[in-house]
Amino acid sequence: MGDIEAPANNRSQQTAFLSLLPSKEFISSRKGQLLIGEVVTSFISFVCFAASTAAAFVTAPFLEFLGALFLLFAYSTKFNERFKGFHWPLMDFLRCVSASIIFFIISIIAVSKYPDGVSKAAGVFGFIATIIFALDFYFIFNELANFLKGGDSTGEPPNTQDDDSESDSD
């Protein structure tokens, strides 16, 4: 008489929900941990700015939270591999550089100008977010520099033989 869901339908809902969660391999990687740190500190900074008298700065942490959350989703579900037209590391690098600069500026203003404790807490979490974003763009910069030098991602050292070594065999 009543509508009872079949167990197969419930199981498909669980697998659909679990497919949205990041994989354990990605979470345990350095990039995954940095992105989770960015999401958490941006969200805490957003909440603190929203509750403080420095509410004018609430937009920047919110946008950085959404950007970090999108990239966490994209990297963990391999969404970025479907769109080869974008240069994902460069986009991530520019996002991290701009986020670290913006968080640093609004954190200095929040700590120095506003007297309430929530603004000071937002500034402290903003400084923590600045450090995390700066670490992320440092690691991305190193990867981009290796890529532009002609290094590959396989980890094999490039061939360093001189042209003279081949001519000595005559």
- The total beta strand count reads 0
- Categorize the overall geometry: flat
Q: Please report the distance between the alpha carbons of the first and last residues.
A: 92 Å
Q: Describe the biggest sheet?
A: none
List the helices and strands and how they pair.
Elements: H1 7-20, H2 24-28, H3 30-51, H4 59-76, H5 88-113, H6 117-148, H7 163-167
Helix pairs in contact: 3-4, 3-6, 4-5, 5-6
Please outline what is shown here.
With 170 residues, the protein is mainly alpha-helical. It has helices at residues 7-20, 24-28, 30-51, 59-76, 88-113, 117-148, 163-167. Residues 154-162 have low confidence and may be disordered.
Describe it for me?
There is one protein chain. This protein is mainly α and 170 residues long. The chain is built from seven helices and no strands. Helix 4 packs antiparallel against helix 5 (88-113). The protein is flat, with a radius of gyration of 23 Å.
Q: Descriptors for this entry?
A:
7 helices; 170 residues; mainly alpha
